[in-house]
């Protein structure tokens, strides 16, 4: 496995946790991992973009048009970072809407698959509105090119935050089953 | 027993390196991207390392120097611009050398993610003639800190370990090791070495030149200058995180990886240049290696293809080699034709800085700003700051504006609590001493907020979370000779405005302390959220001038203007928007009766 992922969202949405969770799960499964966090000017409410590389020791910095996967916790931030995704790559976005028609056309032209999922709403219904990030992690392990199992992800999340293990397990299940 | 490999952020690995090296005293002032280093050092037992926040970088450096004089290994950390503050000490310490080993970690910020400039610390290495190590990943960061102490003690010199944002904040696998206790040497009585008066300094300067020669020879045979043999058509000399980009883009190239950027290993560089037909230097920021190679009489290309601006990425490195004709131009990239909105950095919902700058706007002041979260008040919608220079500049900037005599507006200096303690006190003394007529707005949010919530002497809590003396700002301000000082609740806009007006009317230096804790640190504040009663909202936008991210436009209109809505999940109920609302339509969220 050598997968380059861009994770994005707004400060406070749990993008950093999502990054650490996927990194941790890959590491627990014995894959080399590198990830990169950027800390901007804003404490809350600013753009957050993280680079994560699973299965390689090389630079984690993903080039424009170089990402296999874009995980967007916010639709606008997803739009802003679409240019990272390579032709044939995948976008998973937390949004109640599809991307605007002209964007979808562009994505089709570049053979980029998109998966819109209203993770915030699903998380709210589940009883933990802030678990949208973990739902997206669940989506990620459902992808065929990501060699991580749902169960392994659940084990890792339990190690990272034992108190919330039950709800997080549920969130992973929900994300996994949207595919 | 083997210690398990685990993922570490570059900054965490640097801290681990310091602990393993047997460091006994560590000090720093927080600054992105360096902050987490000392925070991580504080995770080791106090019996191993005394770790403490300093009031500024020079103080931090002097604390480390003191520990070195006293014969233990010492450690000091700062961001690149922090070294400007500490540079006076650096320039003497390099003459003195060390007793206990000393490593200075300096984190550069190419690309200016969160700084006021992108200066290159390697310039200071040359100015101070201090050996400088350049790790490329977290494992090297750990190893190089330990190597730094060996070099420091072998060559009698402080050692700089240079990181950049990309290294400090990249997480990768690291093999931690055990701590080696270094036996304290005790104070070394040697005034000719330790007391920098002209007669002694003149004796020390030649030692620096000797040291440089010895270090050059050392690096010429050191394994941290690594030669990855490859194609003989061209070779690349590089250092730091860009090494990983070069390896990714040109896996076949011959690469000379400089684990140290000062002094340069001239012999190795010459050998490398002779072994390949063409040589490129890939270095972020200034053309330092390139220029020194030219001075050696070597033919080299660097900044012609790789910018002096910003930070590199595999992409910029690739495009540089494309321009140089080494790589074929890739097929024109099919790029997305989308222009999404840019999300500017914002203050937090309920941030107490909003009211202070709302008031500065209300009195139509000329505002000399400073460094902190509140610098964000310089952008729309507050647009309340006229100048921002460096840590602690605001007050003396205001003094100069007053002395220039050209200003018709009232002059206000705005400075945060941590910045005030860092370097705001000497200019306040200066303002009183020179009879300036200015108002200082001391924005006391009771934490070093911008770097993620670090304690300082104004919070009364140490790095390790222990209680200590808490600075009383009013007493400090009065002790400088200020006759007019008042503390006001930042959330009481009316009182804050009246007080600032009084302060401006006062002839001389007046200080208003705008007093409310940060909404995020040390505890995340939550309160009952407010809502807009849409029927009464006239879309006047008065509340939008606060720049609170909990406020946004609703789809409903009033006479062609958007009405306002409040995002309940962000609102902490500070009530500042309710206080500025002329139609009184912002109220606590009505609880449904069951």
Pattern of helices and strands of chain A: EHEEEHEHEHHHH
Q: What is the number of beta strands of chain A?
A: 6
| Cα gyration radius of chain A (Å) | 15 Å
* Helix content percent band of chain B: 25-40%
- Strand residue percentage of chain B: 15-25%
What would you call the structural class of chain A? alpha/beta
Give the termini distance of chain A in whole angstroms.
20 Å
CATH architecture name of the largest domain in chain B = 3-Layer(aba) Sandwich
Most residues in contact: chain pair? A-B, 44 and 49 residues
Major sheet strand order of chain B: 3-2-4-5-7-6-12
Rounded mean pLDDT of chain A is: 90
Outline the fold blueprint.
The complex is a heterodimer of chains A (179) and B (594).
Chain A: E1 3-10, H1 15-28, E2 33-36, E3 47-54, E4 67-72, H2 75-81, E5 85-94, H3 101-109, E6 113-117, H4 119-126, H5 132-141, H6 150-160, H7 165-177
Parallel strand pairs in A: 1-4, 4-5, 5-6
Antiparallel strand pairs in A: 1-3, 2-3
Helix pairs in contact in A: 1-5, 1-6, 4-5, 4-7, 5-7, 6-7
Chain B: E1 6-9, H1 10-20, E2 25-28, H2 35-41, E3 50-53, H3 57-69, E4 74-79, H4 80-96, E5 102-108, H5 122-128, E6 132-133, H6 138-155, E7 159-164, H7 165-168, E8 170-174, H8 191-194, H9 198-220, E9 225-228, E10 231-238, H10 242-249, E11 253-258, E12 260-262, H11 266-275, E13 278-282, H12 288-295, H13 314-323, H14 353-362, E14 366-368, H15 393-404, E15 411-416, H16 417-423, H17 425-433, E16 439-444, H18 473-479, E17 484-489, H19 493-505, E18 510-515, E19 530-532, E20 551-558, E21 561-566, H20 576-580, E22 586-588
Parallel strand pairs in B: 2-3, 2-4, 4-5, 5-7, 6-7, 10-11, 10-13, 14-15, 15-16, 16-18, 17-18
Antiparallel strand pairs in B: 1-8, 6-12, 9-11, 19-22, 20-21
Describe this structure in words.
The complex is a heterodimer of chains A (179) and B (594). With 179 residues, chain A is α/β, with parallel strands linked by helices. Chain A has a single domain (3-178), classed as Pyruvate-ferredoxin oxidoreductase, PFOR, domain III (Pyruvate-ferredoxin Oxidoreductase, domain 3, 3-Layer(aba) Sandwich). In chain A, 40% of the residues lie in helices and 23% in strands. Chain A is built from seven helices and six strands, in the order βαβββαβαβαααα. Chain A has helices at 15-28, 75-81, 101-109, 119-126, 132-141, 150-160, 165-177; strands at residues 3-10, 33-36, 47-54, 67-72, 85-94, 113-117. In chain A, strands 2-3-1-4-5-6 form a six-stranded mixed beta sheet, sandwiched between helices. In chain A, strand 4, helix 2 and strand 5 form a beta-alpha-beta unit. In chain A, helix 4 (119-126) packs across helix 7. Chain A is globular, with a radius of gyration of 15 Å. Chain A starts with a strand and ends with a helix. In chain A, 53% of the residues are buried. Chain B is of the alpha/beta class. Chain B has four domains: 6-220, 3-Layer(aba) Sandwich (Rossmann fold); 226-323, 3-Layer(aba) Sandwich (Rossmann fold), CATH 3.40.50.920; 353-515, Thiamin diphosphate (ThDP)-binding fold, Pyr/PP domains (Rossmann fold); 530-588, Alpha-Beta Plaits. Chain B contains 20 helices and 22 strands. In chain B, the strands form six sheets. Chain B has a seven-stranded mixed beta sheet, sandwiched between helices. In chain B, strands 14-15-16-18-17 form a five-stranded parallel beta sheet, sandwiched between helices. In chain B, strand 14 (366-368), helix 15 (393-404) and strand 15 (411-416) form a beta-alpha-beta unit. The longest helix of chain B has 23 residues, at 198-220. The radius of gyration of chain B is 27 Å and the shape is globular. Chain B starts with 5 loop residues before the first strand and ends in a 6-residue tail after the last strand. The relative contact order of chain B is 0.08. The mean pLDDT of chain B is 95. Chains A and B meet through helix 1, strand 2, helix 2 and helix 3 of A and strand 1, strand 8, helix 10 and helix 13 of B.
